């Protein structure tokens, strides 16, 4: 009998002391909660996964080196948008049937369904292709291509004319 009596906890004191272990735990808990609520929110971290894409500004001239030589990425532009078509390297990269488009503005060529060099804007320092002379069918085809590229490939930047305000702002 004496043994069991020893296990019974002592009756609670009339005025419980403030700093009981339980109170200390609760106080710490609230301090931590208050801290978590009030502290400045941490900077947004990008989700892990493929390297984040930096959206860049290109001129026809700075786009040109991205033509897939030396196993570099293959970029091409469609109506002012630059796409990374590296997954389609077999088509757009060196030796591929569309290699003329690599590192170039492919807009007119896609619209006309022609991979001929004459489809490319010759003067890389001049204005972008204004698509003059393209008919409704060609514009439809172009929209189709644009959708396809948007679905399939990553947009990595925009194409702006050399010596334009936008190019200057981007330090080009
Ligand atoms: C492709 O890019 C390389 C590297 O910048 C350049 O030397 C070469 O002239 C380009 N090729 C074409 C066809 O533009």
Automatic annotation (TrEMBL):
Family under the similarity heading: Belongs to the cytochrome b5 family. MAPR subfamily.
An example molecular function term from Gene Ontology annotations: metal ion binding
A Pfam entry, by short name: Cyt-b5
Stored Gene3D superfamilies: Cytochrome b5-like heme/steroid binding domain
Identification of the protein by name: Cytochrome b5
InterPro entries per UniProt: Cyt_B5-like_heme/steroid-bd, Cyt_B5-like_heme/steroid_sf, MAPR/NEUFC/NENF-like
UniProt KW Heme keyword: yes
GO cellular component: endoplasmic reticulum; membrane
Keywords from the UniProt entry: Endoplasmic reticulum, Heme, Iron, Membrane, Metal-binding, Transmembrane, Transmembrane helix
Subcellular localization, as worded in the UniProt entry: Endoplasmic reticulum
Species assigned in the record: Aulographum hederae CBS 113979
SUPFAM superfamilies: Cytochrome b5-like heme/steroid binding domain
Transmembrane segments: 20-38
Lineage: superkingdom: Eukaryota
């Amino acid at each position: 009998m004496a043994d069991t009596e020893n296990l019974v906890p002592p009756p609670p004191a009339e005025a419980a002391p403030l700093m009981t272990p339980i109170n200390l735990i609760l106080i710490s808990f609230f301090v931590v909660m208050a801290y978590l609520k009030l502290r400045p929110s941490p900077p947004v971290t990008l989700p892990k996964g493929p390297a984040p894409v930096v959206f860049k500004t290109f001129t026809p001239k700075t786009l040109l080196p991205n033509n897939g030589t030396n196993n570099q990425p293959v970029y091409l532009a469609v109506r002012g948008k630059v796409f990374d078509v590296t997954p389609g390297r077999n088509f757009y990269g060196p030796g591929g049937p569309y290699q003329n488009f690599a590192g170039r503005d492919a807009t007119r060529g896609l619209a006309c369904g022609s991979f001929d060099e004459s489809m490319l804007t010759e003067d890389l320092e001049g204005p972008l292709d204004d698509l003059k002379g393209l008919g409704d069918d060609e514009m439809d085809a172009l929209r189709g291509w644009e959708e396809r590229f948007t679905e399939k490939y990553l947009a990595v930047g925009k194409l702006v004319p050399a010596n334009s305000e936008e190019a200057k702002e981007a330090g080009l």
